Amino acid sequence: MADHHRGGTGGGGGYGDQHRGGGVHGEGHQLLQQQKQGAMMTALKAATAATFGGSMLVLSGLILAGTVIALTVTTPCW
């Protein structure tokens, strides 16, 4: 008799299950939004790293050129 009573309420498909289903759909939308933000943040990080890396490459080239010019000027001609 206890099994019959438990079987009647444990079948699922009630209002509470449908309501939770709507919550899962909302969470899915939120997860998609977070994934888009994560992708945008990754792209922003890559662009920043590329810009910084390029700037450092140019700066090191200028330093190398300045060093070569300074050594050329200061080296005595025999």
User: What's the end-to-end separation, in Å?
Assistant: 114 Å
Number of strands: 0
Radius of gyration: 33 Å
Question: Which residues form runs of ≥5 with pLDDT under 50?
Answer: 17-21
Percent of residues in beta strands = under 5%
Oligomer state equals single chain
Shape verdict? rod-shaped
* Tally of helical segments: 2
How does this model look, in words?
The protein has a domain of 40 residues. 0% of the residues are buried. It is rod-shaped, with a radius of gyration of 33 Å. With 78 residues, it is mainly alpha-helical. It contains two helices and no strands. About 6% of the residues have low confidence. It starts with a helix and ends with a helix. The longest helix is centred in the middle third of the chain and has 60 residues.
Reconstruct the topology from this structure.
Blueprint lengths: L1 H8 L5 H60 L4
Short overview:
It contains 2 helices and no strands. By secondary structure, it is an all-alpha fold.
Properties at a glance:
single chain; 78 residues; mainly alpha; 2 helices; rod-shaped
